[in-house]
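Continuing the batch. This is chain 6 of the set; chains 1 through 5 are on the previous pages. Same settings as before, nothing changed between runs. Recording input and output for traceability.
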Amino acid sequence: MSKHPKLRRWAGIVGTLLLLIAGRSAAPAHAGPTPPPAPLCPGWTPLLVTRDQVAERGAVAVRSADDIWNVSYTYNSHTSNTSTLIRHWNGSVWRTVPSPNPDPAVSRLTAVVAPAADDAWAIGYTGNVAAPRALIVHWDGTTWQAVPAPSLPDVELHALAATGRDDVWAVGSYNSTAHPQALVLHWDGHTWSQVALPAGLRPLYSITALSRDNLWVPANDPPNKARLLHWDGRAWSLMDLPPIADSGYLSGVAGSSPSDVWAVGFGIGDAAVVLHWDGTTWSRVPFPVVPPPSAQGYTLLGLGSVAVVNPNEVWIAAQRGDKPLLFHWNGTTWSEARDPLPTASWAEISALSVVGGELWAVGMVHRPDAFNVVLHRSPGPCTANRSFPQTGHTIADPLLAYWEEHGALAQQGFPLTEIHAEASSTDGKMYQTQYFERAVFEQHPENAPPYNILLSLLGVEAYTQRYGTAGAPGQQVNHDRARLFPETGHTVGGDFRLYWEAHGGLAQQGYPISEEFQERNALNGQTYTVQYFQRAVFEYHPENAGTPYVVLLSQLGRFAAQRRGLIAP
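Output for chain 6:
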């Protein structure tokens, strides 16, 4: 096993996503200060969300929008055994595909690549954790089967790349001495064999193949000196790199041509490292100043993965404490982009890559349960958006259109967060979500308008949390123009009924789940007559009699965002 857990974690993050890269990267230029976050152009779509006992974020190979492989492994908390897990996306659903498990105690998959629909490879390790063996499995269009690997001691395989059926590469480590050594294996269409490397290199975690005679692998040799390996079709050699302060590590590499390659990583005393290859030499590319520490005191720990869409669109993933960071290159400058994951407890964008000009990501979210996520970001023009300096947040279509058509500021309040992927408390599925003072919007692309935007059941959540199954005491039916809802057995009357009918009714407010009763407002300490609905809480304000504001909505969105740690109390 790897004897360098910190380096292994950072490099392993990069190796989790191995995609067939089809983009081009940009030429370097000097970057100024970090501009404000990029606009929402456009959003992210979660294609895979798992809540099962997946021990790692897993790896993804994307051939097309209807041919995606995801590999990882499951963990049994009772036996501590791990088993391989392979899933396939056919454009509409994920299907678990049977996969080999040579050792019932430890069998793990860490990377996948798919040169063709009937030709895919996945790698990992199996056997005793203290002395693992290489695990290589192949998909022939029908089944996954184990393939013999070179017999080497203490093997871990971490990353894959391929240029064709007879040209597949795997990198990792083996241990024939006191320390793990770098390992490169090659498939020539018939057998896997070990390929010679320069001596003294530590374990390898990432590889990029531009062509059969142009491959790049981030490497590292003692004492933590960043290196890059290059394959020219005949042998692997080490490239000269510009100085990196103190010691450092390169964790990701991607390119578009022999004269356009990017590498990213970190130095112990030089946090963010970005390098560019112009076909002749590697040079350092200036990167924005490290952002200020997070609430936990963390600064930017380093850059983890790089992906290129075109010369004017390069993406880098990083991590700062519990917050994932995304940086975007527009051909001239770097900017910090909004990440698609919430960070209430902990979140991570594990790796990035590009297929067919579109960006893909693998991530993990703890809120508090662990969710493994595969995200897809489609290209396209920016959607209509509106920024609010009062809270520093932006609403973009289609949420903006819904906000404007359903009461806007008076009914929904200011936005409290950006849009992000979040597990719904109703069904546990992942949706694009945005918090407002009085509501939480969920985007449901599977529904036709107007049901493509639904409101979270904040009223149900707040009522249950505050009053439990017994319900609130002192409830009284308002018989003025009363309307009984047999679905819940509760009645709406008086000004509350007028407001309910004039402000979206069932779709916006939901069914009543209580009668009217007295409740102390948590924001101002005043007591009001209230009534709970599935998606809202109505407050009666007699001081506003004769105005449109005699009924106001409680700030359930604010309370929910505070409970989830998205905003400060």
